[in-house]
Amino acid sequence: MSYRRKSWQEKLADKKGLPKILRLEKSFPCYNAVHKMGAEVGDRVILVNPSEIVEAMKNVPRGKVITIVEICRKIAKKHRVKACCSLTTGIFIMIAANAAEEAMKEGRNLNIPYWRTLEAGGFLNEKYPGGAENHKKLLEDEGFKVIQKGRKFVVKDYEKYLVDV
Q1: How far apart are CA 89 and CA 86, in angstroms?
Q2: What is the pLDDT of residues 1-28, one digit of tens each?
């Protein structure tokens, strides 16, 4: 029996058993990031479906950006929990970007302006299709100023362009 690799669009489908609310433990892979956002051991945190991440990404208009931190805050607020797992959120953001590009190559448009979603601190996402260089080009095409900070790229003054959550 041959194995067929799932497409990015198939990977973007909602997962059985999600959303799921858990009590934060130090052993969670996302503990440090979620703790930085203010969650403590025992606080309720949520693992969400990709569709909630995509919805947040789709609602970022031209001229605005959002970071993974704002997406997590928005989702946590919606579900009335302390935090959202930034690890799964980051994975779903990367999957959404690749699914959008995959669909474009097939002549379809998922209408996910993924390039407007940044990493924490306004940094560009190296895991997006074409890497940070392509992410930089897409942002510059929309008028954002991208500068180099060490080995990475960041949107200059990204805080000014954050979408209201």
Answers
A1: 5
A2: 677 899 999 999 999 999 999 999 999 9
Q: Where are the domains of the chain?
A: 8-161
Query: pTM higher than 0.85 for the full model?
Result: yes
Structure tokens of 59? 């609602």
Name residues whose C-beta falls within 8 Å of residue 94's C-beta, 6 or more positions apart in sequence.
Answer: 125, 127, 128
- How many whole angstroms separate alpha carbon 45 and alpha carbon 68? 15
Name the H helices within 12-155. Answer: 31-36, 50-58, 68-79, 86-105, 131-141
CA distance 62 to 115: 10
pLDDT tens for residues 63-112?
999 999 999 999 999 999 999 999 999 999 999 999 999 999 999 999 99
- DSSP secondary structure letter of residue 19: S
Which element (helix H / strand E) includes 8? helix 8-11
DSSP state for residue 162 in the 8-state scheme: B
Closest CA to 44 of 6, 9, 82: 82
Domain 8-161 listed as CATH 3.20.20.140: no
Kindly report the backbone phi and psi dihedral angles of residue 75, in degrees, each rounded to the nearest multiple of 5, phi listed first.
Answer: -70, -40
